[in-house]
Design brief:
- 58% of the residues lie in helices and 5% in strands.
- By secondary structure, the protein is mostly helical.
- Strand 1 and strand 2 form a beta hairpin.
- Helix 1 (5-21) crosses helix 6, helix 2 packs across helix 3 (40-52) and helix 4 crosses helix 5.
- The chain is globular.
Amino acid sequence: MLDVRFSSALKAMLLLGHAEEEGSPVLSSTQLARSLDTNPSLVRKLMVPLVRDGLVASIKGRSGGVRLGRPADRITLEEIYRSSMGDKPLWAPRPEGPRECLVTNHSAEYFVRLTDETEAAVLGALAGRTLADSLDELRAIDRAEGALASRTRDGRPV
């Protein structure tokens, strides 16, 4: 089963960053749940590590909710990944079986090395991107789709 904690946390953080840009920085778990197509209880659970790590701030009270814990240009995707995933490895190894040959004798160690190398590459890529960069990229995608929608099939403007 695929783990969607990171993608859910990233989408929630993007929603919070966008809401802040729009002048409504606090979103409730109900608002986030609607955008994530899930329930508010799951959103609250998702927020726990993000609040603990200072990426999100919790606002109590009647009009409470959550907001970014610091500016979007000071939050990296690596931080969101580490916070949302905790110590869970990128991949889970298969259980070891009988040791009978080259593969079965060394596949567990090989898999650990491969996982470590892959996680380092993933974390390196995520460390180089901020939440603000990601919002800019979403705006670029939106502009490109808008430009594409304004053209006919043969490429001429409508």
